[in-house]
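Summary for the funding panel

The consortium committed to producing paired sequence-structure records for every protein in the target list. Below we show the first two records in order, beginning with the earlier of the two.
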Amino acid sequence: EFQSVPAGTPPVKVGYFDFMGDTISLIPTCGFWITMNPGYAGRTELPENLKALFRSCAMIRPDMKLIQENMLMAEGFQTARALSVKFNTLYELSSALLSKQPHYDWGLRAVKSVLRVAGGMKRANPHLDESQVLMRALRDFNTPKMPIDDIPIFLRLVNDLFMGLTVESKVDEDLKMKIVRVAKECGLQYDDVFVNKICNLQELLDVRHSVMLLGPAGCAKTTIWKTLQGVHNLDSQKNTCVAETVNPKAVTGDELYGYMTLAKEWKDGVLSIIMRGMSKNLPDQGFHEYQNFKWVILDGDIDAVWIESMNTVMD
């Protein structure tokens, strides 16, 4: 309707239009941008008639080496340039040589996470060589999420790029002892892989506020988090770690997250009720101030509909 009107300058209004009952004024210098990921499961394709109203702009992949170099400098690494080459090579080779897993991410987000971990390690161990710090961060951060077949390939790549360097993994012996105690009490076999996975989960929870446990049915996903919960509650009179389990596929997206009614009223969803109870320590929901760890466990299949919304909530 207003496409033929010449561009004005703010705050010139060239007209009004009705948007679902709300009157919105049109200012020509106000712009709209749409980000599109072609073929991505969580996005719907734009209809052609809407696409025609927008000018498309193609994007190219960023130069990871430069970004890594700058981020390493920001974390305090002196030999950032040499290390960024090794970092970039490792991720390029990993994406080419390792098996294709849906949860693997060798992109910018994963790089940022590793560099944050590496920066924390460098400040905690200033006496260690920078190559050793980065090698440890890359190895310890990536191996927990790999299937057993990919681990030897990845470790060989790390050893080839950081030749002659050996760094021991940081092991929390106290946590391991507690895990063995809890496993004995629950009648579980505590083999090394099981204990290591629980340690990995705790390490991730220390640096993340949302973590995924992935694997086929019967591979001990539930037992791992329940054992870690038992470790936190060990030797304490009151449970300091509580968990609320929700099946995200048992309800609709609106019932899970909440929604606005047509009368512009907010209706709470399952997650928003639980989150409010946890943050405000509502005793009628079973939450108290002495509980240091409050987990919401979303136990169910992953699909693009609910996980995309969760991505936004976590951001």
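The next record, for a separate protein in the list, is shown here:
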Amino acid sequence: SDEPRQAYLLAYVVAAAFICIGDLNPIANLITNFFLVSYALVNFACFAASMSKAPGWRPSFKLYNPWLSLVGALACLAIMVLVEWITACVTVVVCAAIYAYLYYKQPEVNWGSAGQAWVYEHTLRMSQRLVRVKPHVKNYRPAYVVMCKSVREELGMVQFVSYLNRGGGVMMCGSVLVGAGAFDVALAERRRELLADNDRALRTGGVAAFQDVLVAPTLVSGVHACMQVSGLGGLRPNTVVLGFDENWARSTHGSWPDGTYVSLLRGAFALNHSVVVTRNIGRLFDEAATSSAQIGGRIDVYWLLDDGG
């Protein structure tokens, strides 16, 4: 059940310890500091919720002011030190230990904290500022959009791109669901399932990337749409990563319909994107995971540049 048994046990242990002391005077300062830190945290929570500009935070008290809440929190901390600085330190250590425990356990609950709202507000503000930043060659970062059938099936290629992305650029994974008919409930459910599976595969592979699934009537239109709409503002991809078409010589009978692969490349070049085509990357990662011996071989890197000729 959802009963907080560990919290009950902790409360029992603390109460039993204080009762066993048999005298309230030695623990009066500690109890006072516990009350003061509770008031300080409540005041700071009100201040943080106001600074995060969360639309759900609407205090009804007419004389409320966020800065007054901050002053109240600081006043509680100051009184804690004035009461007895040793018990104040003990109180801070206990609070830090509880926070560390919750951070380590990562309980599957969503408290809607002010920190989450602040992250959203701060990210939105920085993204708007990034739009006004003019690009410069010194600050160039490759931003990848990895086109894959699913992250789990092509995890090796996704992990390879994550290694290339150590410079801190944006990395996105795009999958396309081909649906010739209307966008019905069944197709939407398939999209949700693929989104969830891609998210689990990214976490399993330890890859930090965004991912999305597009529904399109054809594979080419879906990939082209993903190239155009991926990203936000200044966080748009400039490099497209594709797997190699092993049946390029007879693509009519291969996994790609006739002319599809070339159309994807032409579309990427038309959008002024760089293109990375990988081959046998998944096999390399599989061999590295199953063999302790050093893997040798040749890596061919082909650069296609427009020299103006």
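Regarding this second record: The beta strands are 144-147, 171-178, 210-216, 239-243, 274-278. The mean pLDDT is 82.
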